[in-house]
């Protein structure tokens, strides 16, 4: 394939190595009376994106011009309380719903009506490495600049997002921003590996006899998959934005949104269209590792021990500059710690269980087992802020209307409390971390069973110890008082 050629053509060449694990599709969302009808409608995605575009515009306006007190500004509360809570709930109960309704794509889609890029993103950039660096940097900068407390900067983050999506996708074909750049997208892709819904074909025979392959090539009415996921060989949710294009373009109505066992695709080691083999994608494994350790370091940034550690480091380094101190903490949490822990687990598995393959390949294969635990910690963390700060949208909406001289909603109720009793928060958090731990242990065992059938327990135990250690760290973090960011209680 030449540098500028589209990968779409190559995807539909029969691949002997492609052995997608396509179990029987489960319950199909498109079969539901109202929801199914809505999702089949060609403009379903746009109709979800438009309200979010309006909300994003209001957030930008309020962030740049409104009160710079975080709990009294729509930019900070909606971004760091409501959006993150709803995003994680959507991933937990359905799938990648935020990417489906992503407003950043609207200006980019509009621009593409007038200008169609002809170049492909250079091959050396078609991987997750760039997005991993951006994601790690984002975790760090979020803490360094207290983005959660800064409406003005939060507004600029949203503006930069719109601009980056527009620029990247105006320069290159396909959806390179979603697939290779967007840190939020990568977070959603990894999380959706444990979601219960998946966009997939209904009947493999129909695809085999299909001549047009519109789901990937597109047709005059609807484009094909811009993420290069060919339905016939698509496995799981990685890189799928739930954009619905394949559903609308398939002339045989052969693509649905089916239920599946959450996380089951993490055990699949077959070729994935547009992705390749997970076990051969070091970048993909590093993304999953950053996702999991990022959940812990992100929570660590909000509890009191981090301040004690920062003050101790300030004395040791003899500096009051927060950047190198926080940078060292994040570098340790996102790079050194996973490197050391996964290397130890990999070496023990290799030596004790006699598992074949290089150390790197062993680590790459087992890294996917960490995803459920990482997701559990993210759910626990984001739900905490969501349940605490849920009602903040009420006084903010009241004050927004009042600002425009409309007083029908009355005076702002700034004193509204959490949506759930505070005594319930810790059990909920621990429950999700416990569920994640259980999922990770189950996956690690099944990977050990698959890859080291002679010494399953020996291969499994080092990873079980790792998962349990991270789980204890998660429990400890959630048990500590956490800053109530984005709320007036904070
Ligand atoms: S999903 Fe539809 S368009 Fe794609 S190969 Fe199958 S039948 Fe053809
Ligand atoms: S497979 Fe592609 S076209 Fe279909 S929903 Fe996912 S990203 Fe969209």
Order of helices and strands: HHHHHHHHHHEHHHEHHHHHHHH
Mean pLDDT score, rounded? 90
Uncertain residue segments: 1-5, 12-21
The total number of structural domains is 2
Helix content: 55-70%
- State the end-to-end CA separation: 54 Å
Largest sheet: 2 strands, antiparallel
Radius of gyration: 23 Å
Number of strands: 2
Shape: globular
Assembly annotation: single chain
Relative strand content: under 5%
Strand order of the largest sheet: 1-2
Q: Helix count?
A: 21
Ligand catalogue: iron/sulfur cluster
Output the structural class.
mainly alpha
Task: Please give a structural write-up.
By secondary structure, this protein is mainly alpha-helical. It has two domains: 7-276, no CATH class; 279-479, no CATH class. The protein is 60% helix and 2% strand. The protein contains 21 helices and two strands. It has helices spanning 7-11, 33-40, 44-65, 74-93, 97-100, 105-114, 129-144, 151-171, 176-181, 183-191, 204-209, 214-217, 245-249, 282-300, 304-317, 322-352, 359-367, 371-389, 393-403, 422-451, 456-479; strands spanning 197-201, 255-259. It has a two-stranded antiparallel ribbon with strand order 1-2. It is globular. It binds iron/sulfur cluster (2 copies). One iron/sulfur cluster (SF4) is lined by residues 201, 206-207, 210, 213-215, 231-232, 250, 252, 254-255.
């Amino acid at each position: 394939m030449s540098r500028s050629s589209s990968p779409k053509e190559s995807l539909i060449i029969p691949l002997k190595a492609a052995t997608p694990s396509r179990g029987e599709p489960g319950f199909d969302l498109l079969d539901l009376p109202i929801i199914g009808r809505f999702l089949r409608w060609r403009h379903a995605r746009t109709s979800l994106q438009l309200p979010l575009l309006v909300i994003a515009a209001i957030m930008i306006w309020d962030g740049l011009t409104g009160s710079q007190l975080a709990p009294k500004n729509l930019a900070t509360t909606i971004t760091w309380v409501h959006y993150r809570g709803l995003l994680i709930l959507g991933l937990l109960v359905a799938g990648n719903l935020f990417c489906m309704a992503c407003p950043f794509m609207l200006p980019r889609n509009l621009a593409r009506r007038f200008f169609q890029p002809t170049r492909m993103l250079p091959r050396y950039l078609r991987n997750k490495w760039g997005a991993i660096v951006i994601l790690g940097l984002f975790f760090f900068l979020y803490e360094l600049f207290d983005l959660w407390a800064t409406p003005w900067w939060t507004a600029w983050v949203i503006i930069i997002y719109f601009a980056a999506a527009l620029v990247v996708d105006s320069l290159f074909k396909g959806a390179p921003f979603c697939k290779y750049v967007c840190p939020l997208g990568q977070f959603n892709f990894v999380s959706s590996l444990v979601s219960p819904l998946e966009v997939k074909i209904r009947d493999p025979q129909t695809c085999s006899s299909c001549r047009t392959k519109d789901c990937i090539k597109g047709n005059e009415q609807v484009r094909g998959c811009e993420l290069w996921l060919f339905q016939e060989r698509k496995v799981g949710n990685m890189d799928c934005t739930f954009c619905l294009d394949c559903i609308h373009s398939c002339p045989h109505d052969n693509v649905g949104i089916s239920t599946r066992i959450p996380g089951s695709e993490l055990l699949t080691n077959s070729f994935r269209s547009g992705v390749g083999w997970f076990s051969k994608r070091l970048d993909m494994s590093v993304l999953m590792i950053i996702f999991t350790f990022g959940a812990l370091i992100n929570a660590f940034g909000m509890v009191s021990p981090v301040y004690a550690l920062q003050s101790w480091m300030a004395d040791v380094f003899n500096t009051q500059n927060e950047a190198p101190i926080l940078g060292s903490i994040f570098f340790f949490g996102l790079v050194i710690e996973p490197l050391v822990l996964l290397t130890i687990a990999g070496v023990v598995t290799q030596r004790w269980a006699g598992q074949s393959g290089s150390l790197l390949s062993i680590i790459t294969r087992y890294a996917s087992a960490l995803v459920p635990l990482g997701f559990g910690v993210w759910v626990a963390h984001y739900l905490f802020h969501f349940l605490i700060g849920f009602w903040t949208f009420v006084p903010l909406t009241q004050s927004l209307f009042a600002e425009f001289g409309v007083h029908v909603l009355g005076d702002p109720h700034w004193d509204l409390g959490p949506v759930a009793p505070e005594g319930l928060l810790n059990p909920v958090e621990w429950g999700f971390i416990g569920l994640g731990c259980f999922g990770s242990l189950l996956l690690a065992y099944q990977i050990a069973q698959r890859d080291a059938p002679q010494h399953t327990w020996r291969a499994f135990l080092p990873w079980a110890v790792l998962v349990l250690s991270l789980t204890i760290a998660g429990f400890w973090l959630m048990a500590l008082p956490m800053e109530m960011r984005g709320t007036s209680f904070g």
